[in-house]
Amino acid sequence: MTRKWITLDLDGTLMQNPFGKWVLPEIEELVSNRLKREVRAREALMREHEERMRQNRTVDAYDWDDMVRQLLREHLIELEIDVERLVLKHAAAPKIYLLEQTVIPVLERLKRSGYSLATVTNGFYKYQYPVMEQLGLSGLFDAIITPEIMGCGKPDVRILRSLLESGQLVAHVGDRLDHDVYLANEAGAASVWIYRDLPEEMRELQPEKRSASAHFAHVCEQKLKEEHPRVDTVPYSPAYIPTHILFQIAELPEMIERLEGRTSHGEGEG
């Protein structure tokens, strides 16, 4: 029987990692203390990350150990900073947490319904797995797809090739239009955008009907500009239009049921 995959992003979709508030600030503190002056290491690392993404180096852009080593060389600092070790240090509550209490019950329900689950994340395995393990997520996924393993990162559709070779991709769920929605649309799967700041008037609609709302275009255009300022939003490219919009992850199982129900019904008609 062909496996039916539902894939999900991690950071901003299911969980909060410790990078922004704990790992990067500690790196900045270590560098500043060594030089005995303030060094805006976080800003420098984010600039390097964005430059690597601009160059389409989607694996290198998430190799934080490499970017830290480069920063240390630029400042002529002889210092060993192990980012993986810092992640392990900070991978504990309340520094990390699930974004909704329903995350684990939702994943368990999808698995009971017969779906195979994979996380497709741009974070390296060594940075993501310790956080997933602490939050009780690691055992719920049949595959953990990361850029250093696949040789590319989102939104490059090749990151999905092992899943597509082993089954059908039903849907991909994520919080970024430029990474997650684009990826799912390129793969021909349901593109499920989770946006927890969804306007009240859009929340009353079912996830598959929200993109037809009069408020949709403005919401997506503003969000895409935040994520990817270089993308031309006029006209707004269909590549960044989600087929479904979630306000909360708890909406996902019933959305999938309706999606699969419509698919089955459509296939049964002449």
TrEMBL record:
Listed transmembrane segments: none
GO MF assignments: hydrolase activity
InterPro entries assigned to the protein according to its UniProt record, in alphabetical order: HAD-like_sf (IPR036412), HAD-SF_hydro_IA (IPR006439), HAD_sf (IPR023214), PGP-like_dom2 (IPR023198), S-2-haloacid_dehalogenase (IPR051540)
UniProt KW Hydrolase keyword: yes
Highest rank taxon of the organism: Bacteria
Coiled coil feature spans: none
Keywords: Hydrolase
Keyword Secreted belongs to the record: no
UniProt xrefs under PANTHER family: HAD FAMILY HYDROLASE, HYDROLASE, HALOACID DELAHOGENASE-RELATED
Protein name in the entry: HAD family hydrolase
Species assigned in the record: Paenibacillus hemerocallicola
